[in-house]
Amino acid sequence: MELRAFAEMVLFSDSLDEKVQRPKDKLTDQIPGESLRVAAPVRPANLQFAARRTAPLMPKPQALADPAKRAIAHHIMANHELQALEVMAMILVTFPDAAPEFRQGMVDIMFDEQRHTRMHVQRAAELGLNFGDLPVNSYIWTKATEYDNVLQYVAGLPLVFEGANLDHTVELEDCFLQKNDRRSAAIMRAIHKDEIGHVQFGMDWLRKLKDPQLSDFDAWQQALHWPIRPKNAKGNSIQRDARLAAGMDADFVDQLTAWQDNAAAP
Fold first, then answer.
1. What pLDDT score was predicted for residue 261?
2. In sequence order, what are the beta bridge partners of 220?
3. Is residue 41 included in any domain, yes or no?
4. pLDDT value at 143 more than 70
5. 84-108 pLDDT tens trace
6. Which of 182, 186, 199 is nearest to 238 (CA)?
7. Please, what's the b/e burial string for 209-242 (b: 16 or more CB within 10 A of its CB; e: otherwise)?
8. How far is CA 7 from the centre of its chain?
9. pLDDT, tens digit, for every residue of 192-205?
């Protein structure tokens, strides 16, 4: 199967099962195709992006004692993972001339995103909520449509959304353990381990693509689209060791930790 065909299946299939099914055959990248801008992914009727502010918000930690609220949390995270998968597919068809090593690395991460989506979908169902029973937002996808090049992608999705997930996964794991939901906690721990590799992919390609005269942190910050800022790349408790394991140097982590939201719109 061609990598392009896999990306198009993720983008244009109206079957969730097809979107999250890992190909059985090894993917080749001999026909990357022409650049294609995609306004929105095709989705099943029950997973269409909802109007702004109509999708449920992540339940507060204290609310997760209720299994129904934990189901909502997994429903929201399933949509996050599905959006990330669709964004990665969009990047592959938008930038077919990207380095072959980048494109293959993206596919490997997409396989993780498929698995993450399936885990959240299954756990939500176990807790009584089918994926698509609630409205879903398009925030990650919408921000990704602003990326004009691969550098902006690695600055945005791997180093902001997945970077923040280094913290959020641990925070949610702790919350689930406090509610004696070991199954949900184990899912968050597994995703946390994967996210370290995803963030490392972003750091590696940031360094390959940036202006060599800029520091990692400055190059990253310059590649972000307002209103995304460094504050969006962290949770309530910075997982320093995870970031160091993901290839960030100590100075990068220190600047991220100390960053204060005092910036004004450009």
1. 67
2. none
3. no
4. yes
5. 999 999 999 999 999 999 999 999 9
6. 199
7. bbeeeeebbebbbebbbeebebeebbbeebbeeb
8. 16
9. 999 999 999 999 99
What residues make up the domain containing 237?
A: 3-28+66-258
The answer as to whether 55 is a domain residue is no
Helix pair 162-178, 67-94: axis angle to 10 deg: 160
Rounded distance between C-alpha atoms, residue 117 and residue 47, angstroms: 13
Taking residue 120's Cβ as centre, other Cβ atoms within 10 Å add up to: 25
Residue 37 located in a structural domain: no
Find out whether 78 and 117 touch, Cβ atoms under 8 Å. yes
pTM: 0.96
* Domain total of the chain: 1
The DSSP code for 63 is G
Please tell me whether residue 195 adopts helix, strand or coil conformation: helix
CATH number assigned to the domain comprising residue 200: 1.20.1260
Strand partners, 49: 136
Q: How far apart are CA 155 and CA 161, in angstroms?
A: 9
> Over pLDDT 90: what percentage of the chain?
97
CB atoms within 10 A of CB 37: 8
According to DSSP, the residues that pair with 2 across neighbouring strands are 28
DSSP 97: T
Whether pLDDT at 161 is above 80? yes
What would the two tokens of residue 153 be?
Answer: 């992608």
Beta bridge partners of 28: 2
Distance CA 169, CA 116 (A): 12
The whole-number pLDDT of residue 219 equals 98
User: Cα(61)–Cα(172) distance, rounded to whole angstroms?
Assistant: 8
